Records
---
Amino acid sequence: MVDLSVNIGDLNLKNPVMTASGTFGYGVEYQDFIDINSLGGIIVKGTTGSPREGNPYPRMAETPQGMLNAVGLQNKGVDAFINEIWPKIRTFDTNIIVNVSGSTIEEYVETAEKLALVPDIVGIELNISCPNVKEGGMAFGTSCSSARQVTRAVRNVFPRHLMVKLSPNVTDIVEIAKEVEDAGADSISLVNTFLGMAIDAETRRPLLSTITGGLSGPCIKPIALRMVWQVADAVKVPVVGMGGISSASDAIEFLLAGASAIQVGTANFINPSISQEIVNGIADYLVRHNFNSVTELIGALELD
Ligand SMILES: Cc1cc2nc3c(=O)[nH]c(=O)nc-3n(C[C@H](O)[C@H](O)[C@H](O)COP(=O)(O)O)c2cc1C
């Protein structure tokens, strides 16, 4: 038997595989396909202070080895999350982390304050990186001072695990990672989607109603991996890696680059049981390579 458990700060995960926000609903939608309790954690859909309808359709487009989305944080708002959704998912035997977004610092704080009042919510993932909302979102994650301000403000009101999710749409991701670490993040997750666009040459029109959207899937993996490696080398808090992970070997690459855990996103749309297959594949790898614990892989990239 190999030990798959990892710690992200004070959070204990039975294995390093979590599902990424916006790609796995609230977990219940996937119950027919996989045993939710077999995962290390679920990051639920982006939650905001007030309900949001999201952007107009079309808001998804396929690209080679990936997809563009401009969903725009469609959700029922934090009150509906706490009153209607949380009671249905709180009994899952896994770490359920609530992804929090907002347009203003006040909205982030108000949402985090309400979630802090629900004692069995173990942590939040602060999305300061969404490229698909007009105001806010990515705006917070692309400047050092606003990344610091929003992290600090939420840190002051949320006493449990605070994971901060970074945008890759920056010149120097390490700079931003250090700011949020200083401001009190317990862990850092990366990456969110890359700003991209697609055009239909026949109609000469953009494929997304918002013209630009967020690129995800295998096509972003090499850039995401590079960013995870740079950030893991520069901060002391645990790093959670994602971006195009579609197999156990992809996941292991992120662990070797320094991630303590990983998230699976777009791959859930292609194969709804992929995250469980990745857990099994990591266990097989450990046996094949004579490791006792998955923690031996974290940051174990061989450089000479
Ligand atoms: C349809 C869709 C919706 C998403 N919604 C959110 C969201 O609400 N909050 C968030 O932080 N990230 C969101 N993301 C970003 C993913 O969580 C993830 O960071 C990104 O897709 C990269 O991972 P992947 O290549 O494995 O998909 C969304 C991604 C997709 C494709």
---
Amino acid sequence: MLINRIFNGNDAVYGLTVGAIDDAIAKNGADKAVGFPNTAYCLPCYYAVTGVKVKTLGDLKEAVGVVKTLMTREHALDDALMSGVATALCAEFIEALKYVDGAVPYEEPCYGHLADAVIRELGVPLVTGDIPGVAVVLGSAPTAKEGVDLIKSYQAQGILVTLVGGIIDQCEELGYKTGANVRVIPLGKDVTSVIHVVSVAIRAALIFGNVTPGDAGALLAYTAERVPAFVNAFAPIDDVILAAGAGAIKLGFPVISNETEGIAEVPGALIPAKVEDFNKTSLEARNIKIKITNIDIPVAFASAFEGEIIRRGDMQVEFDGSRVDCFELVQSKDMEEIEDHRIEIIGPEIDEFPEGSKQSIAYIVEVAGKNMQPDFEPVFERKFHSYINCIEGVMHTGQRDMIRVRISKDAYQVGFRAKHIGEVLYAKVKSEFEAVVDKCQVKIYTMPEDCTKLRHELAVPAFDKRDDRLRNLTDESVDVYYSCILCQAFSPSHVCVVTPERLGLCGAVSWLDAKATNELDPNGPCQVITKEKCIDDRIGEFEDVNEAVHKLSQGALEEVSLYSIMEKPMTSCGCFECICGIEPFSNGVVITNREYAGMTPLGMTFPELASMTGGGVQTPGFMGHGKHFIASKKFMKAEGGIERIVWMPKELKDMVAERLNETAKELYGIDNFTGMVADETIAQDPETLVAFLTEQGHPALSMNPMM
Ligand code: SF4
């Protein structure tokens, strides 16, 4: 019965797909291009399963023939599940047809297809557990309130929620905020739009997992073992939804439903539950563990709120470091100077500020512990941005003495006050850094004169001192480096070697971060790597680094260099901020970043360039890296260093200009180096690029060819 229903649903979708492709060919011709925007993987699901890139409607016609071969009709569960995969592929074809001719088929609030860049951004939060799972909520809940309550429950746990079908209207009906910034992503109202989240899981396997397109077995093993997704399907479930659900089950994603008619439980895969139990049942079925953060505040605290935006009209009060004196600071103290969990407000509380006003704030988190080191202060402090943003109804930007904090009227009305910022900082610092912080207290100043005085007398000198320390921190000045293998959850053979002058390629792990992580959890993702046996100083190769990488990659990597893009380069996992690739006409390299959607002079966009590397394999000529690494004296040192950089997107160039120019001046005596580096407003093809570089006398032109 269940199996017959899956076959019926699959047949229905297959028939629709064949009809839609034939219609599209009749209208546009078989040579018409077809594909999704901002992905290097054409039709990602079909490409991953078969290894074939579909580029035209003619290709699509052939592909649907291949899909037919998956639709075997033995009366066995595996045939039914393969029919589920066939249904998913048909859904991908139907969705792809919506994008023909550059059409924009989805409008707010729906997203439809999600770009490769979104998946790369999700990499780190998924591996760190900040996003512990991915929920696919499908159909209409019995009532809008029940649907929204379910979404809220996932959001409060940090789970990424995707919505398909009637639930999207139910959110709108109750005015519930959705969007990628609050991790509730409406995909589309047709059931076929569910493929856009399937496509995310499948591209994760290609991007992070180094799964070879066409190796369906490895693909299914990857999604089942490493992508913590599940489906919540509201009744009624028709045959088409059931067939799509079978596809999800084949990928390893359990389907939880309140449907009681005409379906049977498949243990661990198709699970009946009441709507109010969906959350609990889903987490159990997928074995998702939620890190409980119990903080005594009147609003929710979850990573899902990290991207929440508080508009001017919605804010109760704003602390704005660009207008008035504000800062945030961590200071180490002696044990006896600290009363644990003391939260002190020195000055007026928010109640005393006029609604919508701009005020000063300074919060100092004082910590003490036997193993505490001043080097950890900036590591904790950099986390404040994320901690404060995780508070529902509070927005934080910037750092140090350039912070801005907005508190919404909604949060204020349910009782949120400045002291709760102290509660959050206390709870997070104590829980995340418990190995080094024994005691912690928070002082919050809200009187402008206090903030001004403390900013100039305490905070700025502390920041200056730290900057001096960082400036003196070089690869040569330290005794050890650190590994980071956090991304192995997705990219099983990838190892970052983190040095003072080369941070992790995600941009989130500096040498100090790795050091702190190691001290907090000596058996955790960051291990000490000695650097005593240098093999080749030019490329930065060490016998001990090689040994560590070999061991930590489970034998996948033998040798790695720290400073070369051509010889034994470091691997990339997929969540890199930037990618750098050789530009042969100029002897230089082009760098582009995840946020830049346009074309580079290499004739490739970021997703296309990024697809050349990743998955924990070495790819000479291409290198994933963090933004801060661009200005490092060790950037491609073996190939001549930053002098090789010939092109960057303008926004990235502006962002790194000050430090890059400083390095260029120090290393080569070049003034205003970024003036010689092209961007998209100057050149988008190699000829214009070389003409510009020639005019500027760019040093790369006279350097040795890299290949
Ligand atoms: S440093 Fe490397 S392994 Fe660690 S989280 Fe960043 S990219 Fe992943």
---
Amino acid sequence: MVGNLRSSRFPLGARVRLADQAVDPYPTFAELRAAEPVTWVPEIECWFLTRRDDMLAVLRDPDLFTTDAPSTIRDMFGVHMMTTEGPTQIRYKRKCLPPFHVSRLESASLPRLKAEVERLVRALGWGGRHAGEVRTEVARPVALHSVLSVLGIPLSETERVNEWYEHFARALANFAGDPDLRAAGKGAADAFGRALEPILEQLARKPNETLLSDLVCDHVDPLTAEEIRSNALIILFGGIETTESMIANAVWALLSHPEQIETARSRADALDLAIEETLRWEPAVQSAARHATRDTEIRGVRIAEGEVVHCMLGAANRDPAYFQDPDRFDVTRRNAGDHLSFAVGRHFCLGAPLARLETRVVLETLWSRCPGLRLDPHRPGAPYGYEFRKPKTLCSGTPDAGGRQQSVPQWAATRRVRIPM
Ligand code: HEM
């Protein structure tokens, strides 16, 4: 009954279908933003917000809109920074933050990252006929190895981590509540915990410059083994598909607008701005969910205690009240960096500096080593997906015959971004 009443009050929300959103969410976002900015979506029984201002208010008010509630991600990984609020969340995040500072990333991660990207891009082939697949052959391994390295998990674990990741991803997308998928996800999280034990023992004896080493050697109010496991799990899960998608979406966005690539390459800050525009225009993560802690209202719409509000980040990024001509991809857009693709507030993405660094190194290397790189017109790769969006395949076309090798330019330091606490 309540459902029927809501459907008649929110007719556009009632028509939202996740399958359509996965193909192209932006026309629906535009309609909702204009006519039903706070709407009820019966298909997933949640509220959708599509105006940037409303999302800023929700994401900045953890007392009223919390992540501290039962959820699949907490069920699977335990209590971690993304499913707590207040002092516990701040403690977890503070402990995990140092390895993600730009200066430490540049000293501890950049040389390995550059060497790996160089090797993977060479393997794609350039100046010849080979057409590589950029998402799975470059973006995925870069994302996976980078987050493993920052955590301090040996790269020899890559294959097992990949398998666990597939179980996590299926369990988290298990909207129908299939018990087998849930059990497989929890089994993978337990297997990760068991694999972590000897790694932590080793790091306690021989510390190094990694996150797990920092945590295991911390003697001031240290995290318990369980707290290390659950926070490591969310960092690992948060760092793989998201960054793979961010890199692939950035390559796709620029290759779909080849006239803008030269502008993006012209200076270090131009490339940084172009990366922000790719984040704004096609964000890898499309929503951030919050639970109402009490009955409240947004724009006069009553939200009941316990109901889930989805902040549709891709809609915020194309809100014409903030971004002029928002559907246009423009690498010179001055306020591109005000996108919400890493959310805002206490849960602002921990890995944003690493993801930006990875994307920049991939773009620099691709433009330098594959000057003729272009999208393969026979295998179009527009991003797809409701919650995580990425190209299914991102095939490069035949590079220019005799494509030249150029030295990789030395861009200035990555944009320094403060992570809100
Ligand atoms: C190295 C890569 C990454 C790592 C390690 C990582 C890790 C994390 C972690 C641990 C959180 C929870 C922070 C907290 O609750 O305080 C988080 C939040 C978030 N991340 Fe990332 N992330 C990465 C890349 C990305 C990328 C590429 C995107 C999208 C473009 C993204 C989007 C988000 C969003 C939207 C949130 C906030 C979710 C919410 O508020 O509900 N992340 N990330």
---
Amino acid sequence: MKRLLIENIKVITMEGDYIIPKGYIYIEDNKIVKVKEGVYEGERDNFEVIDGKGCVALPGFINCHTHIPMTLLRGYGEGLPLMRWLNEKIWPFEARLTEEDIYNGALLGIIEMIKSGTTSFVDMYFREDTIAKACRRANIRGFLGSPIIGDMWERQIDETLSLYDEFKEDDLIKIFIAPHSPYTCSFETLKKVGEIARNYKLPIHIHIAETKDEVNIIREKYNKTPFEVCKDAGLYDENKVIAAHCVYLNDDDIIMVKNYDFTVVYNPQSNMKLASGVAPIVKMMENGINVALGTDGASSNNNLNMIDEMKSASLLQKLSFNDATALSAYDTLKLATVNAAKAIGMEDKLGKIKEGFLADIILIDFNKPHLNPPTDIYSNIVYAANGSEIKTVIINGKVVLKDYKLLDIKENETILNANQSFIKVIERL
Ligand SMILES: [Zn+2]
């Protein structure tokens, strides 16, 4: 058995607002066995010990919506309007990606996420088998869904099911089913996806109502809202649904989706950058809808940093509702931890530092000028931190980042490989 002790540590448990001012976390294999105030007094033979002095422990962040290999497209085709950007830049580039490029882009994104405190992510991209390899290489949790889009949907559903078969016993990888959106999938596709999800108990990861254009296209085709179309296709029935964006939803949509196991993933930076609009998150939360947080892909953000995203998430709601009390720092932190764990069906295993939970823990180094004085610890993390304070990261009981250094992955080599992939794709254009 592997034993890990983190001592001299302040712990934000995310169980209500319970904070342990100074204590320890004792981990056996991949589970948290004890979280307590004071000093660990048991034996210490064969223990790995981390001194948490000056640090704050927090559950690792769960990025609930991204397209991880799109790190390769970071900064590519900037400044174009959405449709020209997609047609002239993004889609031709993506059509030329090889399996090796996807691996290189995924690993680059994964190390960026680990270094900024993310320990799990929900992904939608082609070649999730390859992305799974990068997850295993880095020891990060991946909730992976291969996109189902357009006319090839039957083959894509088969691909999802073979991925499900391959990874159903995996510790770190879980397969989701990922219909791209109600405007890129036919009604028949959405119906079939709902059925398959029910039969195999696969959570659904989808984009809904990202832009006004989408709402108009759906209105013209069905005379309904995007949320109604998905409902009428039976997508929500007995299924767990994780819906990215949800920028445009009306009061009836809100009342409708709250009756289902439905999580909205708020992507504030992507929505601002693409001028999509502001999702009415405060209103959804007031109505009891579960809301989580995502970065979206690096081509529309342009980073995968959840601390950065939390700040935008909170500020944008305050501005949008003209209310300085809207979406507090603590509630924002919940979007990235507790609510996200609920979204992926792991609320009894992830999102809190709690005895019996999986050991996905980050240590934030508070010995930084911009985090002092530590008057309000939640607001310092959400508004003052920037991700560069993540000193140590533990995923599934394994230390993957220690004293700011990745233990198992060569950072420089990963950066070099990704940059070379980018150059090769450009040469193929
Ligand atoms: Zn997306």
